[in-house]
Amino acid sequence: MPFIRILPLLLLYISTGCKETNPEENEYIIGFSQCTAGDTWRKSMQEGMEREVSFYPNLTLIHRNAHENSKLQIQQIRELVNAGVNLLIISPNEAIPITPIVEELYNKGIPVVILDRQTTSKKYTAYVGSNNLEIGRAAGHYINTLLKGNGKVLEILGTSGASPTRDRHAGFVESIAQSPGIQLIDKFHGDWEQEYVLKQLPAMLAKHPDIDLIYAHNDRMALGAYKVCKQAGLEQKIKFIGVDGLAGPNGGIDLVEKGIINATMLYPTGGEEAIRTALRILRKQPFSKENILETMVINPANVHSLKVQSDKILSQQQDITRQQIRLQEQSNLYHNQRIVLYILVFLLIGAIILATIVFISLRENRAINAKLEAQNQEILSQRNQILDMAERLRESTEAKLRFFTNFSHELRTPLTLILGPIEDILTNKNVSPGNQRKDLELVRKNAQQLLHLVNLLMDFRKIEVGKMPLRVAQYDIVWFVQEIMNVFKNIARQRRITYRLTSSAPGIAVWFDANLLDKVFYNLLANAFKYTTDGGQILLHVSLDDSNESVLITVEDDGQGISQEEQQHIFEWFYQGNTSVGGTGIGLALSHELVQMHHGNLSVRSEVGNGCTFTVRLPLTQPDKTADSLPVEPSWTPSAFSPPTFDQAPLFEYTTSMPSLPPPNAEATVLVIEDNADLRAFLVSKLQPHFQVLEAADGNTGVTMAFENLPDIVVCDVVIPGQSGIQVVNQLKNDWRTSHIPAVMLTARNTPEQIIEGVQSGADLYIMKPFNPIYLIESMKTLLRSRERIRDHFRRELSLDTATLAPQRTDRKFVDDLTAVIEQNIANSELTVDGIAQAIGLSRMQLYRKSKALLGCGVMDYLQNIRLTKARQLLLRQNTTIAEVAYEVGFSSSTYFATAFKQKYNISPSEFKNLHTPSQN
């Protein structure tokens, strides 16, 4: 394709033609530092510079106004230099302060043009301005002529310290010195502004009433002097001379023509000349260092012709400005049109190139598309086959996991029947310590190992499906690790292993799920004991990291260590290294996942032959993602958890026994609902020494027995014939007769959804199979003690002003309904338990048992308690007798009322009434 080969050359030629270059002209930036831009003369100077700059497109003018502040002007000069200007034009505010900075720039080789006011040094590139000394002389000569050699003159000076002020005064004094008749009787500084003249001149006129002429250093001050004299009626007597001679309204020329002032000294602004001089310097062309502008006297004799000329010049300047604007517009239009033309050319070339490429591509693609179509069909067929194989593999894997999960559930019940009796036998002191006990301990150890494998498989399944719940609470991590370490103390002592914990702080509060994190540390410690030889050491250390944002827990042993290659795979599922001793390859991977769920990290550091160190890093802040729907355990103790999870169960004593406390009521009745006859018989045998036990083999029978007997506590399996355990508990909790009865659920179903369902049904305790019978018994006793505390709550004094709340919604409704029936019939002395039971909708026996279980007292006791509480309020009313109160609250006689009242409150009704009745004066 020859055309494509020459395309880069064509584009280079076009892009080169797009640039406008003029080798004879460079881009220049001129900085202009003005002492002030507030007066007309200064504005005229800047306008002249801008007009001159407009003739040079390659020239840029940057202007700064110092507002007559020398320090600010020095700062602005440095800013202009830092901005990269090529040349500086400076009109000093004061000569002495500005001289050092001018000399500094001049010595650095930066061109500096001084405009109007000179500095005290000659270290500058060029000067443009009038000779103020000559202006002063010309003013003196003209005044001598105007006054005919005889008169008194008042001089109004400019700013003190300014070179124009100094030179104009010196030239004026030098000139009038040649005329003895001209006297300079006084002078003052007007600072170039009219307002200062208006303030100071009246005092001068009063001091010198015989003034013949006022000489002002600029036209503005001369105009101010004229205004003061006119107000005093002296404008015809006194003559006025100014300096500047600007064109335009209220300029010096205009004032002379109007007869306001007698003459003005022409003082050119020099703006145009400064720009021209700057350009000659930048272009390396010849220039004069001292550029003195000519001056002249403007008086009535020549003012008219000068005004005509100045007006014509202004008009021409305006025409030039308009032409420049128009020229700039045309130039912009031309530039834009040229850009559009270049764009169109590029687009045309691009279109031709694209068309050529498309044509060639289409021709080549036709042949390729045929091949691709055949390949696509083959790939599509293979993809469908792969998808079918992947779907079958997924279904097969899911079926395997589902089988093992269901199989694990089925293992929990027989494990319960194995571990329960074994634990019971081993806790019996009558068992001989010989071979029989060793055999039983061996059975228990292997049953626990089997249970550990079941739990491990369940945890693996939960993580695989992403349903492992995280329920965090704040614990002391030092205490938590210490409690887990205590489980291994016996084996450490037996094997003479140095085993200790160190911490950088006595306690560190961390947010974590104790049910999950204890598996991590049990596994790490079990592995440490597995690979540590007798007489070795296992050290744990707890500390904060350098940022105090995380806690570090290290488990260090001096075992055989792990190779670098194995360390890369040690946290992978089912990985077993060459040095591993048995195990499933799940423990460390599970620990790693559990730590990551806490937004932490588990890492390992080891060398072969030098031991191994595992580090758990946990954040101090609460993890964001938690299972909010699951209840958080309020506290944690090692005895409340299942055996530890690690690859090989260590040989240590592990028991979930709790301190034995006497039951709250030796006569308490427990209803056991369990369909497995062996497990039901086992539960009955364990519970009978502590409770009266009722049995039911299905849910329907259990509900009926609960309604008939109102037991003190119910123990129910989840999966039972008839109604399920969830339905049984839900029905009992929503019925008035049984809502107060604590419910304990036994189950092998431990997924988060199943646990939530059990809690939502109203179960007070949810125990996983297999379980320790002692833990079950002590948990039941704890629930009964809690129920006893609720009864104590209802046995407190009842006040009709304060609502008494029960812990369950149905219990609260029962108490509210019972109280309402009593209050509606409180005056009825013949109100009986039968009448109350009929009003509530319960039998007499059910009402008695419900009241006794929930309130800790009989119905009649509760009735009398409400009557006496009501009576105490009625006795506070004035003009009410004790007998009236007794009959109003349902007592048949005032004597019985007084006896019951004193028995309850240790004070008679009359004494109570007198105590709360205001004394009469």
UniProtKB/TrEMBL annotation:
It catalyses: ATP + protein L-histidine = ADP + protein N-phospho-L-histidine. The modification 4-aspartylphosphate is found at residue 717. It is an enzyme of class 2 (transferase). InterPro entries: CheY-like_superfamily (IPR011006), HATPase_C_sf (IPR036890), HATPase_dom (IPR003594), His_kinase_dom (IPR005467), HisK_dim/P_dom (IPR003661), HisK_dim/P_sf (IPR036097), Homeodomain-like_sf (IPR009057), HTH_AraC (IPR018060). Pfam families: HATPase_c (PF02518), HisKA (PF00512), HTH_18 (PF12833), Peripla_BP_4 (PF13407), Response_reg (PF00072). Residues 669-784 form the Response regulatory domain. Keywords: ATP-binding, DNA-binding, Kinase, Membrane, Nucleotide-binding, Phosphoprotein, Transcription, Transcription regulation, Transferase, Transmembrane, Transmembrane helix, Two-component regulatory system. Its EC number is 2.7.13.3. PROSITE patterns: HIS_KIN, HTH_ARAC_FAMILY_1, HTH_ARAC_FAMILY_2, PROKAR_LIPOPROTEIN, RESPONSE_REGULATORY. One of its GO terms (molecular function) is phosphorelay sensor kinase activity. Residues 406-622 form the Histidine kinase domain. CDD domains: HisKA, PBP1_sensor_kinase-like. The chain crosses the membrane at residues 339-362. It comes from the Bacteria. Residues 816-915 form the HTH araC/xylS-type domain. This is histidine kinase. The lineage of its organism: Bacteria, Pseudomonadati, Bacteroidota, Cytophagia, Cytophagales.
